[in-house]
Amino acid sequence: MIKTETTWTPRTDLALEIGATLQAQSQTQTIEGIDIQTEKNQEYPITTTSIEIINEQGVKAMGKPIGHYITIESPMMKENDPDAHREIINVVSTQLQKLLPKKEKLNVLVVGLGNRYATPDRLGPDVSGKVLVTRHLKEHAPDAIDESINVVSSLTPGVMGLTGIETSEIIQGVVENTKPDCIIAIDALAARSPERINATIQMSDTGISPGAGIGNRRKQLNEETMGCPVIAIGVPTVIDTATLVNDTFEHLIESMLENAPNHAFYQMLQQVSEEEKYVMIKEILEPKLGNLFVTAKDIDEIMVYLSEIIFNSINIAVHPGIGLDDINKYSN
User: Fold this and answer.
1) Which domain holds residue 266?
2) 286 burial type by CB count under 10 A (0-12 exposed, 13-18 middle, 19+ buried)
3) How far from 98 is each of 182, 185, 228, 231, CA to CA, in Å?
4) Could you give the 3-state DSSP secondary structure of residue 256?
5) Which residues form the propeptide (predicted)?
6) Are 103 and 233 contained in the same domain?
7) What pLDDT digit, counting tens, does each position of 183-238 carry?
């Protein structure tokens, strides 16, 4: 067996994948301290999974704070299908409304995290640049909008490597002046499963750590640090190379065993645990490739679809009096 001191940590930011791993390990659908509910769309391939971490036992199992984690999955997110995107927007906006503060008049700050010059990381800036901002209209041209429109402002703080300023410090300065009821922060994430890349949206009411998707975690953005609730919206746009190679290795072993089921060497490989295989692959790759992440070759086109889905979902969720057909009359 392979001996190693390296910790087994396949990269994922998705509560859904962590929950699935726990269910597989315990061989049960019930995990103490965690409630998991799944709903499937009847018309389109859209699956919504709601995970609530209820207590400290759930926190210990999941490695995430107490709160709600909502995941919408659909392969249609990365396809050029306006009808499917419209339905996904309806689902995402409905779920997002569940996380917003229950208040008649909302003041929302939308924050686009990430690096606009790196395509897999530009989701946040793309979304924050297209949401319907109304704070200036509410103050200076109130007659231009009706009562169904809430107060929304937008911020793209950039990354510390470009600004030299901690992202949380920039946001805190804006929060002190705009005093929002909540922050909606958008960022790119990493997934465990290749099938979920660019096909999954995760929302939570527990905040976010900027740069988490590429393993470059900064200071947490949450209610404790910001002084107001922080709703995180993320899409996995990358996958850790070691995780991808490990999955490929698993499929290769399965294929070899199908062709030569009694081959002793292939049977020995199958007996090596997933942890040992992952650690071995990681130790081989990192000296040559470093901490490398992989994304889709058509990420430029997909990013357009994803940003449109998310900024339209935010617009509808925070302005309950308007729908998707109404948005254009308020947009530039």
Assistant:
1) 243-289
2) middle
3) 13, 16, 16, 11
4) helix
5) 1-13
6) yes
7) 999 999 999 888 999 999 999 999 997 655 455 555 789 999 999 999 999 999 99
